[in-house]
Design brief:
Elements lengths: L1 H48 L3 H6 L1 E8 L5 E2 L1 H8 L7 E14 L2 E13 L7 E15 L2 E12 L2
Parallel strand pairs: 1-6
Antiparallel strand pairs: 1-2, 3-4, 4-5, 5-6
């Protein structure tokens, strides 16, 4: 009886330590995932800059749902055409800033700002900027992280 009480007391005393260690392991894993997703968001931007449809498409799940800043819901093909058009568009600069990434196991939510610079001076126009807040929902499928949902909202100047 005394031995059972002693074992129970040891288990109860060790439980907070075990929980703290598990939490520490989870935080390290989440930090690695967050770093991986930040690198993937940089790849997302580079694919747009290079108009690399294959690289851009690899980051999007086949069943991705994209809500653009006009409120239209786009398919994967429509998002690729919108962000990496084949024809020359006067987008001469892009930037991305990730504000926050929260990891929930095999799913993560990322928020940030995506900025485009347009230059129409060669056509008598002007230079202007378009900034959008974004939310990406990433899901790990097999060994790949892909965007399964994206939402863009224009930030007014």
């Amino acid at each position: 009886m005394k031995k059972s009480i002693f074992i129970l007391a040891v288990i109860i005393a060790a439980t907070p330590l075990a929980i703290a260690q598990m939490k520490n392991v989870e935080e390290k894993r989440d930090n690695k995932v967050e770093q991986k997703l930040r690198r993937l968001s940089d790849q997302w931007l580079n694919a747009i800059l290079r108009k690399n449809k294959a690289a851009f498409g690899a980051l999007l799940a086949d069943d991705v749902i994209v809500t653009n800043s006009d409120g239209k819901v786009l398919s994967k093909e429509e998002e690729i055409a919108d962000k990496a058009p084949a024809a020359y568009v006067h987008n001469v600069g892009y930037g991305i800033r990730v504000n926050e990434t929260r990891v929930y196991g095999e799913t993560a939510v990322m928020t940030g700002t995506f900025t485009k610079r347009f230059d129409y001076r060669s056509h008598g126009g002007r230079v202007w900027w378009l900034s959008q807040r974004f939310t990406f929902v990433w899901v790990k499928r097999g060994s790949l992280w892909q965007i399964v949902a994206a939402q863009y909202t224009v930030i007014e100047d």
